């Protein structure tokens, strides 16, 4: 578990993350594709392990009743996906591209693989979950769409 620093494109938002895992995930859902320009590459950071500066430059958009996507309102960089309600609201999915050093990170799971752009594939061995599998895993039956 490492400590890593990062920032958005313009530098208005800076972060220090503690206890950073060595793996990240990718999401190909339609909302992530539009928000992040093709796919979301996120790394889990627990709420208490994220220190942010430049919060005035952060706009968090509630993209469902239970999750938000945040971006820098100066430069447009995608910052995080965060579940805001329920058992998975204990952390952030921070954009891997914000981090200054990603040299030790490896890909763990691909979400919404049935929604991905099929122009490329990663080598075998990744955990892959379709939209239906993601919904079944993360969303209580009565909650509806996760996006
Ligand atoms: Zn920025
Ligand atoms: Zn997504």
From TrEMBL:
Protein name in the entry: Glutathione-dependent formaldehyde-activating enzyme
Domain CENP-V/GFA: residue ranges: 4-121
Signal peptide limits: none
InterPro entries given in the database record: CENP-V/GFA, Mss4-like_sf
GO molecular function, one term: carbon-sulfur lyase activity
Family, similarity comment: Belongs to the Gfa family.
Pfam families: GFA
The entry's keywords: Lyase, Metal-binding, Zinc
Organism: Pelagimonas varians
């Amino acid at each position: 578990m490492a400590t890593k620093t990062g920032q958005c494109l313009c530098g208005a938002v800076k972060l220090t993350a503690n206890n950073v895992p060595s793996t990240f995930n990718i999401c190909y859902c339609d909302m992530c594709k539009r928000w992040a320009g093709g796919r979301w590459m996120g790394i889990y950071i627990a709420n208490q392990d994220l220190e942010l500066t430049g919060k005035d430059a952060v706009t968090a958009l509630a993209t469902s009743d239970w999750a938000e996507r945040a971006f820098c309102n100066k430069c447009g960089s995608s910052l995080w996906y965060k579940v805001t309600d329920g058992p998975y609201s204990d952390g952030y999915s921070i954009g891997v591209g914000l981090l200054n050093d990603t040299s030790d990170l490896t890909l763990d799971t691909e979400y919404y693989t049935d929604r991905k752009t099929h122009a490329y594939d990663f080598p075998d061995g990744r955990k892959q979950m379709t939209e239906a599998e993601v919904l079944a895993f993360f969303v209580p039956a009565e909650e509806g769409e996760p996006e």
